[in-house]
Amino acid sequence: MEYQPVVVQGRLRPSNSKHGAESRYWRQFKHPVFIKEYAPITSVHFSPSKPHRYAVTAATRVQIYAPRTQKITKTISRFKDVARSGSIRQDGKLVVAGDDTGLVQVFDINSRAILRTLDSHKQPVHVTKFSTLSPTQVLSCSDDTTVKIWDVPSQTTVSTFTSHTDYVRSGQISCSNPNLVLTGSYDSTVRLFDCRSGQSEIVMGESSNINATTKLPVEQVLMFPSGTVALSSAGPIIRVWDLVAGGRCIRALSNHQKTVTALAFDSNAGRLLTGSLDQMIKVYDVSTYKVIHTMRYPAPILCLAISPDETHFVAGMSDGTLSVRRQQMKTTNGAVEPLRFGAYESFLGTSSLSLGQGIVREKTKSKPLGSVDELRVESRRVKRLKEYDKLLKSFKYSAALDSVLRKAWTFCSPS
Questions:
Q1: ∠42-46-49 over CA atoms, to 5°?
Q2: Domain architecture of the chain: domains with CATH
Q3: Which residue intervals correspond to the WD repeats (predicted)?
């Protein structure tokens, strides 16, 4: 009878089946590219339209990157002071940004020309965003405690809100109603404004909602696409507010160790991503608000964004480092297409077959050589036995044990 090699039983590692699939998905964002800027990166924003270029704001400039190549395609540097919150409009043609002089400027993304200058604010403007449902309107939030809605063609203010009593460093126009504006301020309150009434309809963070001794500046706010629930971050705490119930706090999350500086959703708002000064980015399942994945970075996180097609994940850090991670690209028919470039694709020997709107990659099969009737004898590869198997085959049990122990001692002994 032929000798059968010894089968070594490996020790199974404990696995978390509950979060395994989620962790595997977020680990697909591989191949990080680190781009060094000369100042802290305060804002990253992806264009909602293809090819999903993204705007990176740092120091006195806003740079537009191409996600495929990670190269800078445009640099907008016509600012008198530090630039803030560069955002791209839905159609990908315009960019709006504020600066520390109080100016809000609208640029053509291709020519980089200044199309509009909005100069009503008296102090730095930290938030500038286009309205999703009204593309000709722009939101601006300033350190002069005011929040404004601008009509870009006429360069006039549509609404001005003055209810905050301290810096307003975060804000968003609702994706479901262009008249609703959610803002967060250093006065420790989150407010929901209505342009139709010109008033603050809901105030969150006052009275008994939060203990007065634990009030902290609100760094970020984020509203669900449905417009019924809002999120805010103050210090290391993330709070969930039910807007339908009048701004009631329904959940408080405390998974970070330091101030949470960035909030973002994935493409379908099923996952919440948070970045903090503790150098961690955490991913939450919004159905349970449980942490399903954690990513560690080399410096404190100031901003983050994920592309609408979920192929690129970008984070900006306080030391001026921009981290860009990418994963496999999904085609329109749901298939997965690896990110391949030029010669590498040719090297793999793949061919593209167009089927409707999708693209299917098919490997080219090599043709058999020789005659069909030719008898071909394949050589069997003999498996080489390990040292202890050779000794066991010769009935040298003591020597086989010594061989195993000697190998284990080699691995365990200090170098």
A1: 160
A2: 27-327 (2.130.10.10), 329-363 (no CATH), 386-415 (no CATH)
A3: 118-160, 161-203, 253-294
| Coil, strand or helix at 90 | coil
How does pLDDT run across 60-84, given as a tens digit for each residue? 999 999 988 889 999 999 898 999 9
**Is 143:185 a contact under the CB 8 Å cutoff?**
no
Cβ-contact 139, 128 below 8 angstroms: yes
Question: What angle is formed at CA 186 by the lines to CA 183 and CA 189, rounded to 5 degrees?
Answer: 55
Q: What is the pLDDT of residues 207-252, one digit of tens each?
A: 544 455 468 999 999 999 999 999 999 999 999 999 999 999 999 9
Strands (E), 37-155: 41-46, 54-58, 61-66, 71-76, 83-88, 94-99, 104-108, 114-118, 125-130, 137-142, 147-151
| Chain CA centroid to CA 367, Å | 45
What strands, in cross-sheet order, belong to the sheet with 301-306? 30-36, 321-326, 312-317, 301-306
Among residues 178, 183, 221, the alpha carbon closest in space to that of 201 is found at 183
Q: To which residue do tokens 């098919």 refer? A: 362
Separation of alpha carbons 76 and 83, rounded Å: 10
Residue ranges of alpha helices (H) inside 224-351 are: 342-348
Pairing of strands 336-337, 280-285: unpaired
DSSP string, 17-34: HHHHHHHHHHHT-EEEEE
Per the CB < 8 A criterion, the answer to whether 249 and 267 are in contact is: no
On whether the pTM is more than 0.85, the answer is no
β-bridge mates for residue 51, sequence order: none
372 burial level (CB within 10 Å; 0-12, 13-18, 19+) = exposed
